[in-house]
Amino acid sequence: MNKNNISRFLSLVLRHDPSKIGITLDNQGWIAVDTLLTQLKEHDKEISFDTLKNVVETNDKQRFAFNEDQTKIRANQGHSITVDLKYRPLEPPELLYHGTVAKFVDGIKEKGLLKMNRHHVHLSESLETAIKVGARRGKPIILTVQATAMYKAGYQFYKSENQVWLTDVVPTNYIEFKR
User: Fold this and answer.
1) What digits encode the pLDDT tens for the residues 26-85?
2) Beta strands 141-146 and 165-167: pairing type?
3) Would you report the helix, strand and coil content of the chain in percent, each value rounded to 5?
4) Which pLDDT does position 163 carry in this prediction?
5) Do 78 and 11 contact (CB within 8 A), yes or no?
6) CATH number for the domain including 143?
7) Where in 12-140 does DSSP place strands (E)?
8) 172 with 118, same domain?
9) Could you give the number of structural domains in the chain?
């Protein structure tokens, strides 16, 4: 498996379907590295610890993290399974961004940004990151979120280890639609 395929597969098992390789994450999303490597091998996806470490360190979105002694690993955010990542509420910057594509804009204008099958809506401090996220599915449309106004209205925000801002919902009145 190349590094990109390893990253995708890790995203699948650490964020959405750990049972695919017969693992169980703890309530904070962690799995022992030895257990993960053993189960990957048993499912014809064998990789070394050095390869795993390289994927974690070089992933452009920093999707994964080791604990301090590198004996456990987890996904930083984006789970569709129940995990408690122990995020603490933080005050966000004035503006955050979300990248999407045209086919989703009407729904967002009607209902706002919803977390759908994830735990949170993902937002970025960086316009460039939002453009890259939106471009994964076509021509990006960037939404500007009035995060400080939301925060002052009582909405909670969290920041993941890989600098992604998270919230439960973004109502339409806090979104500026720009093409």
Assistant:
1) 988 999 999 999 999 999 999 999 999 999 998 877 889 999 999 999 998 778 888 877
2) unpaired
3) 35, 20, 40
4) 87
5) yes
6) 3.20.170.30
7) 31-32, 64-66, 72-75, 95-100, 113-114, 121-123
8) yes
9) 2
